[in-house]
Amino acid sequence: MDGLLNALVVLANFALVPGIAYGSQLALGALGVTLVFGVLRFSNFAHGETMSFGAMIAIFVTWILQANGVSIDPLPTALLALPVAILVTVGVVLLTDRFVYRFYRHKRSDQVIFIIVSIGVMFVMAGLIRFLIGPNDQIFTDGERFLISARDFRDLTGLREGLAIKTTQVITVVAAVVCCVLLFLFLTRTRTGKSMRAYADNEDLATLSGIDAGRVVLIAWTLSATLAVIAGTLYGLDKSYKPFVFQEILLPIFAAAIVGGLGSPVGAIVGGYLIAFAEVLLTYAYKRFLGHMLPDAWMPDGLAQLLGTEYKFAVAFVILVITLLIRPAGIFNRRSG
Amino acid sequence: MSFLKAEGMRGGYGNDDILNGCTVEADKGEIAVIVGPNGAGKSTAMKAVFGMLALREGSVTLDGRDLTKLKPTERVAEGMSFVPQVRNVFPTLTVEENLEMGAFLRRDDISGTMEEVYGLFPILKEKRRQPAGELSGGQRQQVAVGRALMTKPTVLMLDEPTAGVSPIVMDELFDRIIEIARTGIAVLMVEQNAKQALEIATRGYVLQHGTNAYTDTGEALLANPEVRRTFLGG
Amino acid sequence: MRTVLPFVIFFLLLVLVGVLQSWSLAFSIMNLCLVSAVMALGVNMQWGYAGLVNFGVMGFSALGGLAVVLVSAPPVPEAWAVGGPGVLFAVLIAIATAALAIAARRIFAERVARIVATGVVVAVGIWAVADVLEPATDAIEAVDPSFTGFLGGLGLPVVLAWIVGGLLAAGAAFLIGKIALGLRADYLAIATLGVSEIIVAVMMNEDWLSRGVKNVVGLPRPVPYEVGLREADWFQSLAATLPIGAVELSSLIVKGCYVGLFTLFLAVILWLAERALASPWGRMMRAVRDNETAAEAMGKDVKRLHLLVFVIGSGVIGLAGAMLVTLDGQFTPGTYQPLRFTFLIWVMVIVGGSGNNWGATLGAFLIWFAWVEAEPIGGMVIDVATSWLGDASPVRQHLMSNAAQMRHVVMGVVLLLVLRFAPRGIIPETDRT
Fold first, then answer.
1. Among A55, B220, C87, C103, which lies 20 to 30 A Cα-Cα from B145?
2. Is residue C8, in this structure, part of any structural domain at all?
C-alpha cells in the first residue's frame, strides 16, 4: 500500500502536476488560435510570437516594478505586470489587423494568402522581440517558489517520496480555469459573445442579421491576444523565457487546436490537455514509479521511458497526423472539415 | 399602390442581365409567389428585391419609401426580412440563440416576439436548447423562418423554403406561412413546387427569361391552360 | 526588360560590396545566393506551379545535409564493427514493419479494424526497432566519442552526395506526401512544419547517425583547399603579379570555384524547371492549381500530380541542402531553424515572383543579399539612432548587441509590402497559354 502511494506521488510530482500546468498553457494558446480561426478562417502562424511579445512586455514591466520595489510577495510581480502587457499586445495586434490583415479580409483573399501574410507578421514580431529583449534566456519569476516543497510534503505525509507544487504551476492552472470560465460565460451569455459564435457559424447569415463583421473581428483579435499574453507569460514564469521556444511551442498549440477541432473553444481546451499529457506521459521515465510497485527482480534495466524527452513534440505531431487522417474536423466539430 | 413594389428590375452578375424588367408586388397580408422554369431568374429577382444584387434599372419601394439604394442590412432595419435557401441557420447555436441573433438589431425586449415564434412553431420551444445543426431539415427550416420573424418584419421573403423537405413537411410549412401572412405581413416567396405554392398564393408571378410571363392571382394562374401546359406540367 | 534589370541591379550591389567591404564577402554572399536560389526553385515548383504549401523546407534541406555526411564523410570502421549489424538489422525491421502495415491496411476492409491493425503493427515495429537499435547505437556512440562516435559515411565524392541528398529528400517527401497531400492548405502547412522539426530533432539527437550537436566537421570538398593552392607553382606566380595577399587570393579562388560549380547546377535546374513549366505537364499543373475542381472533373489525377511535384520540389531542396553543407564544410544540426531555413526561402519565392523560375531565382539573390547586409546596415542605423544615449548607456549597448536581429523585421516588412503592393512579385508569372 505504501509502495503504491509512493509510486503515485512520484508520478504526480514528475508527470501529472507538470502536465496539468503545461496543458493549461497549451489550452490558452490553442484557444487564441481557435478563436481567430473561427472568425477569420485562417491558422495564425504568428500566434507563437504574439505569446512571446506579450511575455516580453510583461518582463519589461516586471523589471520596472522590481526596480521600484513594488512586490506582491508571495505572488510573482509579473502578475501585476500582466494587465499592462495585455493592453500593449492587444494594441499591437489590433494595429496589425488594421494595417495588414484588413486589406485581405476586404478582398476576401484565400486562406493560404492569410497564412503567408501571418508569416510576414511573424518575422516582424520575431525580429522586434529579439531586438528588444535579445535572443537569450530571461528568468523573471520572484515571490514564493513553492506552494508546497518536496521536503514539506514528506514531513507532512511521512511518505518517502515528495510532491513539490510550484507557485507558478498553481497560478497557471488557476489562471487557465478563470480564463476559460470567463470566456465561456462571454460566448454563451452575452449578446456580443453569441454574435461572435454566430459569425463564426455562418458569416453571411450573421451579416444579414445585422451583426457587424468589423466588430466581431476586433473582439476575436482582442480575446486571442489577451489569451496569448496570459499563456506566454505563464509559460515564461513556469519554465523560463526564451524567444525561440515560442516557435517550437507553435506545433503543440496547433496540434491541440486541430485535435479539438479548429474553431471550437471546448476542443482547444481538451486538445491542450490531451497533447500535454500525451507528451508528458510518453516521455516520462517510469523507473522510479515502477520501483515502488514491482519487486526488485522484475525491475526493468533502463529508465523505462517510452520516448526520449528530446522527441516530445513528435508526440504532438503524431497525434496531429492521426487526427488529420481519421477525423480531420477534430473531436468537437459538428461541421464537416 | 402595393405595400412592397419592385418595379422594372434589370440587372445581373457581370455583363449579362438576368433580370430584364421584372416586376413583383405584395401587399400586407398577401402571399406573393414567384414561380418559373430553372434559370428564369426567380432567386435573382428575390435577391434584387432584398438588395443583394445591384440593379441597373428599376426601383424597390416599401410603403412608398424608396429602398433601391439601401444595403441588405439597412433594408432589414426598414422592415424587410429574408430567409436564404441554404445555410439559413447558425448550426452550433441553440434554437433560442438563433432567434436571438435574428433580433440582433433590436434593442427592445424580444421575449414577446420569441413567444409568438414559439406559438407558430411549437416544436422549436421544445428544442430551444438544442443546436440548430442537430435538427431535422423541416425543423431547421422553421428555425430559419423564426429567425427571420424576430425583427418583426413587415415583409418576409423566402427563397424556396420547401426545397429538400418531404411533402408532409411542405404542407405544414405552407400552413404556417399562411398564418404568418394573416398577421398582416407581406410574404414574398420563390417556389420550385409551383402547383402547391400557387394554391396558397394571393398573387402569382410566372417568370421567364427574367421578365413577367404571366401575372395573376394564384387561383387564376392554376386555371390558365397555357400556364398549366407550359409551366405546371399539364 | 523586367527580368534582366533587377538582376543587373543585384550584380551592381554585389560589386559595391566587393569594393566597399571585401571581395571575399561578395563571393561568400554570391555562393549562398546560388544555393538559396536552388532552394527557392524547389519551393517555387511546389507553391508557384502547384499551390502546395510546404513549410518543411528546413527538414528537406537538413536531409540533404545529412546525405553529405552519409556519403562523403570517411567511414568509421570500429563503429561499423560494433554497431553496424545492429543498425542494419533495425533498418530491416523498420522496412518489414512498413510492409506489414501496408499489408494490414489492404487486408482489413472495415475502418476500425484497419486502424487498430495498423496501430498494433506500427507499435510492435517501433518497439522492435528500438530494442535492436539501442544497444547498437550505444556501442557506436561509445567509439571515441570526442572524435567520431558515429558510423561515418562511405567516403565517396561529395558531388555524388548532392544527388543522394536530393534523392533522400525526395524519398522522404514521397512518404510525407502520401499521408499529408490532399489535406487543406493550413493542415498541410502545419504537418510539413512538424515533420521538419522532427527530422531536425532526429539529427540533433541521434549521435550515431549525425553526431548530433557535436557536428560533423571536415567534410570533403569538390574544390581545392587553400593550403594546397598556395603550394602550387602557378598560384605563386599569379600571386606575385597581383596586389593582394596569398591567403586572400587562395580564399577567393576557392570561393570562385564554388561559384562556378553552383552556377552550373543552378543553370541546369533552372533550365529543366523552365522546360517543365512550358511543357504540357507544366500547363496542366497550373491548370490544376487555378481550378482543382475543374481539373478533377476533366479527369486529371490531381493527387498524383501533386505528389509528383511535391517529391520533385523537395528533391531540389534536398540537393540545395547538400550543397549548403558542402560549402560550409560541416554539418551542424543545431543551426537549423525554421525562420532561416523555411520561411526565409518562402520570402524569396514570394518577393521574386511565385510561379516564375527567374523570379524565384532573383528573389533568392536579393533576399539573401538583404539578409546578410541587413546586419551591418541595421547596426549602423541603431548606432546613429541611439548615439544620443551616450556610449555608456546600457540600453544603447543592449540594442547594439541585438542590432543584427533587425534583419527579421526587414524580411517581414519586405514580405508584407510585396504581398500588399505587388502580390505577383518582382518578376510576375507570365501567361503562357
1. B220
2. yes
